[in-house]
Amino acid sequence: MPKTREMLFVGFFLLAAAVAHSEICTDLPEDISAEAREYSQHVQGISKRQPSSYPKEPFISGTVPPGFLWGTSTAAYQVEGGWNTDGKGESIWDHYAHRSGRTPWGDTATDSYHKYATDVQLGADMGMTAYRFSISWPRLLPDGTLAGGVNQAGVDYYNKLIDELIAHKMEPLVTMYHWDLPQALQTKYGGWTNESMVDYFNDYATLCYQKFGDRVKRWATFNEPWSFIVPGYGLGVSPPQMLFGMRRRQYEVAHVVIKAHARAWHTYNDTFRAQQGGEVGIVLGAPWGQPRNTSDPRDVQAADNFEQFFLGWFANPIYGNGDYPDAMKQMINGDGTEKPRLPVFTEAEKAYVRGAADFAGLNMYSAYLIYASNHTLPLDFISAVIPDLKGAKDTEDPTWPHGSSSSTVLSYVVPWNIREQLRYFSEKYSHKVPFYITETGISEKEQFPPNMNDTWRQCYYMLYVDEAIRAIKLDGRDVRGFFAWTLMDNIEWGSGHSVRLGLHYTNFSDPNLTRTPRVSAKLYGDIARSGGFPEGAAHSKHTQEWWDWCHTMEPYKGTGTGAGWYPGMH
Ligand SMILES: *[C@@H]1O[C@H](CO)[C@@H](O)[C@H](O)[C@H]1NC(C)=O
Ligand SMILES: *[C@@H]1O[C@H](CO)[C@@H](O)[C@H](O)[C@H]1NC(C)=O
Ligand SMILES: *[C@@H]1O[C@H](CO)[C@@H](O)[C@H](O)[C@H]1NC(C)=O
Ligand SMILES: *[C@@H]1O[C@H](CO)[C@@H](O)[C@H](O)[C@H]1NC(C)=O
Ligand SMILES: *[C@@H]1O[C@H](CO)[C@@H](O)[C@H](O)[C@H]1NC(C)=O
Ligand SMILES: *[C@@H]1O[C@H](CO)[C@@H](O)[C@H](O)[C@H]1NC(C)=O
Ligand SMILES: *[C@@H]1O[C@H](CO)[C@@H](O)[C@H](O)[C@H]1NC(C)=O
């Protein structure tokens, strides 16, 4: 699932704001009139906002290094279906979707449990060299534990998928946890709130290495921990819906998840690497925080703090010094007179966590414009969802191209967030690893009839792939793969199929769930087959011709993400 900011804005903004307010109202500034002024500027329109005036980059031709992986990304719950087929256990998402008043879209999803060979063929037809998918933990271990027994049909399914990929010359990049926790672990033990999850996850990861590690050489432990921890265990609006955990519980959960990640890495390093020779990393959500005024040190600091609370929460322990970022420690734990809300790593734990990754997977979709402010209003993403982050507010730049539904920040097309984030990560963290761009993509509302000529998505991939090439060519970043989100329209969590991100259109009215390539699939295939934008190639010329147009609002008119996106509101 890509769209953290969309989901946070559209769906649970009000609830979140209420929670946030209960926490920060003691910090209301004395100067209410200044605050009211700022708020009124906000509601009067975005024209009053100060744009970041980030320069539009020119098109550059260029190709990626040999062995670069071109792929698409998916997640088990969003595509597999077969939620209880052949012995699969219930996940927290199944459980959530089966409660009254919801549509259990994920029960069949795109039926990739049965149609995996079709999916592999779609990738092969585009000339992909890789495929990122996730393993459903309860499909392998129905109650989450080895003691509960291994579901052989689940093992068979992933064997068939992996073999099919390899037969089509696509390398698997496999996520072990893309949010579909076995419900039994939640019900019995409280899910990720329980430290013993480190052991259960390690058992599961070990099983994955044992069964599939002869063919899978790239493992991601977790997908976007931020995006399941804050909504699931902090705000409580997504599964497992544990409410009011923003002050303490979400930090404790993240502590467990970071340790579980490190443990799974060490298990691989100690027991499997010599024989299997692969790599294990983590996939982090990495929206870029752009300082509104880059000449103002306060804005620069505020944007850095935003990065710390989002990316750094996980990246700093794993790729940095083994500990949480200083900004988080200071703002959450204060002067240390109270029991720390942000847990404290022991020295041994720091040494264990530090450097426990062979690569960094980054999901990079868009950016926020960040400015320094101590005002509560206007309510924004930070005040609603990251209330512990003080002195920073977010907005967006009206000059950034965006879709018709500009209230959903997701649709802001900010290709240079890739290069900025890679620069930031490279400069900030001492543990040097290769990067994979594990997700990026653009959503559109479901339309009837579907518009197969998805110019917005074509523009998006032109700009974003070229930005990745710029990062490699101009900045020398060690980027080894680009994975588009996503192969085909799938089940966008609680939104079902009303939100579409696929390179292929999926016809959900058709019992066959037929997938049809959009024009963007052809373009992305041309890019992949030729390793980027070689000089003189037809698609390079085409991209150059469209370059200026793609930097205007015009191509994105068909996007926008639909209200009521988030399951908490359904
Ligand atoms: C944590 O999990 C263990 C099983 O590993 C269980 O015995 C314990 O009761 C759980 N703790 C809580 C608070 O649920
Ligand atoms: C990883 O495994 C190698 C080979 O066994 C070992 O030398 C190294 O110390 C391990 N790294 C860590 C951080 O444990
Ligand atoms: C940006 O910040 C600098 C330094 O504080 C200031 O001099 C300048 O006026 C600011 N620019 C704008 C457009 O506000
Ligand atoms: C916010 O408050 C802090 C602490 O009083 C102060 O240091 C900082 O300059 C303030 N930020 C702004 C943008 O006024
Ligand atoms: C898609 O639309 C664009 C812009 O209108 C047009 O130039 C292009 O020819 C169309 N492509 C196809 C395959 O119809
Ligand atoms: C989707 O499938 C239904 C049922 O087979 C069919 O009637 C409809 O034309 C299809 N829609 C598109 C856009 O292909
Ligand atoms: C359903 O898909 C299968 C496999 O792609 C195909 O053979 C069959 O003709 C399709 N059926 C319909 C009704 O489209």
TrEMBL record:
Record has Glycoprotein as a keyword: yes
GO biological process, one term: carbohydrate metabolic process
Keyword Glycoprotein: yes
Pfam families hit by this protein: Glyco_hydro_1
A Gene Ontology molecular function term of the record: hydrolase activity, hydrolyzing O-glycosyl compounds
Stretch forming the signal peptide: 1-22
Keyword set, alphabetical order: Glycoprotein, Glycosidase, Hydrolase, Signal
InterPro entries, sorted: GH, GH_1_N_CS, Glyco_hydro_1
Subunit structure: Homodimer.
Homology family: Belongs to the glycosyl hydrolase 1 family.
Name under which the protein is recorded: Lactase-phlorizin hydrolase-like
